[in-house]
């Protein structure tokens, strides 16, 4: 059976919807992983022990186990004990927290590396520790690790394909739907790959924009 | 009590790190509007003493008072945090390495603390920034980032940032030590200007000429003790203590 890409156009709509869902779940998870990462980092470094230890445990759980398994656990596992989350929400929680943990590791390292004089100067002006952290230390730490956080976000985009297994009709699942109707796996998986690549390019452009805005402020 | 108290008072300040005693029972007072220089060899404890005044380096024992209030009052943790934040708003500090916030513009550096801590509008904040930056001659750079400034300019912005909180007392921790020689003067001029406006200042410095020309009183510290203190003409011209004489001789030789 030869290749025939003319099977694709009838499924433009399906694929386009898949692209939209992929962007939606990636963007939502990215935002959650970014702010979650900051929160986890601050708690890991400055939180009281009673909060720090459970946070550490959850971090370890998210880092030390497969993302696919986490998605199963959040979607199917929680449903079994009565927490019935929509697939999209379960996907965002899984992806978002998974990458929040990775972002938090980066942000923690950068926070420790921010010059001690910054905290001192802020405290000297009368800022509370929390204000000094959120206004002075965290923004500089985040700025310093924006490129590696960007890499995490691109990994997140690619891992978003995993949520197809819990039934979020994102790009990969859309391609599979089309394949189910046409028995043309090569054409549709290739089309999905191209579309992922294009989303990736767009995402890199957005990230570069953020980094450029930060160039002067160091 | 109607008894008058000194504006700044340090009572029996002691500080040790393990067995190392950095400050050994130091007491001193500074009157309102006075300008006091603290000089001494490195390791003498002068920066530690300065940093104890706003509790950046808490004392092991002893008290610090500002305008009738104890800065390092013993309070439960939460209350102490609120208390010290309020006290610190009244005490400006300028550091050797400027410590400007690199992620903020000059304007934002100046307005961040007033905006967060005093309920002022954006417009008032802008006016405040313009006033303070004009005062230190940095108004033209108001929308620059610190990375675009020279060391002397950074330090002048740092002074404006401290002054924007309208402090009662200014602490200078070797404010010109990290500067290229040709940039020292612009910062000294700003400090002189503050002196003329009768800002109370405590200045840790290595610059004897500046201390002599600006300060009302000079305190010479060595090994955690105040060895000698008095008006600059006395301490610099006729020091009575041998340690002061040695220090000044070495310093003058070094300057040549």
From TrEMBL, chain A:
SUPFAM superfamilies in the cross-refs: MetI-like
How does the record classify its membrane topology?
Multi-pass membrane protein
Residue ranges occupied by any ABC transmembrane type-1 domain in the UniProt entry: 19-207
**Pfam families, alphabetized:** BPD_transp_1
Q: Which residues cross the membrane?
A: 20-45, 57-79, 85-102, 161-180, 186-207
Compartments annotated for it: namely: Cell inner membrane; Cell membrane
Q: Where does the record place a coiled coil?
A: none
Q: Which InterPro entries match?
A: AA_ABC_transptr_permease_3TM, ArtM/GltK/GlnP/TcyL/YhdX-like, MetI-like, MetI-like_sf
Highest taxon of source: Bacteria
The record ties this protein, via Gene3D superfamilies, to: MetI-like
Q: Which PANTHER family match?
A: L-CYSTINE TRANSPORT SYSTEM PERMEASE PROTEIN TCYL, MEMBRANE COMPONENT OF AMINO ACID ABC TRANSPORTER
Q: Spell out the protein name for this chain.
A: Amino acid ABC transporter permease
